[in-house]
Amino acid sequence: MPEGHSVHRIARQFDRNIVGREVSASSPQGRFAEGAAILSGRTATEVRAVGKQMFLEFDDELWLRVHLGMYGAWDFAGEIVVDPTIASANGRMGQTNQRGTVLDSAGENSLTSIGAPRRARVRVRMSEQTTGLPEQEPEWPPPIVGQVRLRLLTDSTCADLRGPTACELQTPDEMLATVAKLGPDPLVDDVAEGEERFTAAVRRKPTPIGQLLMDQSVVSGIGNVYRAELLFRARQNPHTPGRDVREEVVRDLWRDWVRLLSIGVETGQMMTMDDLDPAAYRAAMASRDDRHWVYHRAGLPCRVCGTEIVVEEMATRKLYWCPSCQA
């Protein structure tokens, strides 16, 4: 499932390529035909990302709410201006001497801007790698590929939505009510106020901290990868009830989330390892297998103590952790 950094990056793509433009909307799949008919001919006026949800406003105060869920994806095609937040990862995660282009296994340039407007097709889904596939005079508008729930088309840019958990129109009051149910997002809410809300919510609940970090009413945007990595970085047992986690640890979890989310938005990578030498850093940016402390490393030795990383199921999701470092 896309995590918070990905949805913020997608929202920024919309801000640069769709907001301020009139759209032609359609539902090739047919499941959002009525909503698309209402949107068609309107101008997109604002976009917001909160946690794992994106809200796109159109004139007459009409909002489109999209939650990608496990299988949702946005495809962009046409004249794409890629957001400059990926322009540089230098200085992040303690790295100050990285130069040059680093492409990961999905083809994303993690350190330098993909560039100015170009004819391209861009796919954003799941791990939210953004890959430009140059074409020569592509067909316009692009042909429909797969089950497209919603197509938003401007005079030069196409955005296709596939497989979302939620795709619905909302009034301003309905949008605000949806957001009100979500926990704090460090890129939306005041960071200090968010810390207080998060700390208070965790400290009053008997639910294991490993579940609370995935509860979007407690904190927005954290998914399976960030959950595992945040808990390991804090050396926190995921089974400890929230109310029993020391307050300073809860606050440290929030502050670490603020930091990792910012890095994720800027680089497009869920980079969670610190103090890597230049070669290790480049390897980590190029491969997910070298980017995390415990996530997806079941059966492998802990990078710190050598104990075998375990995987178990917590609230129907896989939880990776070190039973020694996080005892």
Automatic annotation (TrEMBL):
Q: Which residues are in the Formamidopyrimidine-DNA glycosylase catalytic domain?
A: 2-100
Q: Which UniProt keywords apply?
A: DNA damage, DNA repair, DNA-binding, Glycosidase, Hydrolase, Lyase, Metal-binding, Multifunctional enzyme, Zinc, Zinc-finger
Please provide the Gene Ontology terms (biological process) for this protein.
Answer: base-excision repair
- A molecular function GO annotation: zinc ion binding
Where does the FPG-type domain start and stop, copy by copy? 293-327
Lineage: superkingdom: Bacteria
Q: What class of enzyme is it?
A: lyase
Q: Where are the transmembrane segments?
A: none
The protein's Enzyme Commission number: 4.2.99.18
Cofactor(s) recorded in Swiss-Prot or TrEMBL: Zn(2+)
Q: Which Pfam families does this UniProt record tie to the protein?
A: Fapy_DNA_glyco, H2TH, zf-FPG_IleRS
Which family does the record claim for this protein?
Answer: Belongs to the FPG family.
Query: What is this protein called in UniProt?
Result: DNA-(apurinic or apyrimidinic site) lyase
Source organism per entry reads Microbacterium rhizomatis
